[in-house]
Specification:
Layout: H1 2-32, E1 37-43, E2 49-55, H2 62-66, H3 80-88, H4 95-101, E3 105-107, H5 124-127, E4 133-135, H6 137-141, H7 148-161, H8 164-179, H9 191-201
Parallel strand pairs: 3-4
Antiparallel strand pairs: 1-2
Length: 203
């Protein structure tokens, strides 16, 4: 059922947002003449690697110029248009193709870059039992700079309790954040969330 919904929603999303995607592609090209999309090798279900696609939000060759690191608040690598795309999560629209292909799901743990985690991590395969998601509990409820083990705890908790009704709730929450351009304003909402993450990871 989860995969069926992913296919249906990704097809609908591509149809609805294709004109907007064309506009974003044009604006990115006009902005600095660099590549329109950004691709990166990431971990998928059961540790299978795949290439994720996003609209480019950083200056061309950002990793070569500044080194690889997750984006931070007021990151000098992010372009003006990139800030808008990231705040509204519109930079993620090309991942509808990843979802349609079966690399990803709409809801699940974030797809981690290959450089972010190794298969030798004791909880690697536990975390990658299911497809990574475009959104999920850790993406919605936690700030980017929250420690990895806390995010991991939320991911494992989601995997243990995954349900269609829960996925719908996360999708609605994500839509709300997108409408108010709040993806770059998220903060760690409570000490309790940190404790949940640490407790699950340390089991």
């Amino acid at each position: 059922m989860k995969r069926f919904l992913d296919v249906c929603l990704s097809v609908i999303g591509l149809i609805i947002f294709s004109p907007l995607m064309f506009v974003f592609a044009l604006l990115i090209k006009i902005q600095d003449g660099g590549p329109i999309t950004f691709s990166q090798e990431r971990w998928g279900k059961v540790g299978k690697k795949f290439k994720v696609y996003k609209f480019r939000t950083m200056v061309p060759d950002a990793d070569k110029k500044y080194g690889f690191s997750p984006a931070r608040e007021n990151d000098i690598r992010i372009t003006f248009l990139g800030k808008i795309l990231r705040a509204t999560a519109m930079d993620e629209l090309p991942q509808l193709i990843n979802i349609l292909k079966g690399d990803m799901s709409f809801v699940g743990p974030r797809a981690l870059a290959v450089a972010e985690i190794s298969t030798t991590h004791p909880l690697f395969y536990e975390r990658h039992k299911i497809r990574p998601g475009l959104t999920g509990p850790a993406q919605i409820g936690l700030a980017r700079d929250v420690p990895f083990e806390v995010k991991l705890g939320h991911d494992l908790d989601y995997i243990q309790k995954v349900s269609i009704s829960g996925d719908i709730q996360y999708l609605l929450q994500s839509l709300w954040i997108t409408l108010f351009a709040g993806w770059e304003k998220r903060s760690n909402k409570s000490h309790k969330q940190n404790e949940i993450g640490r407790t699950i990871v340390n089991k």
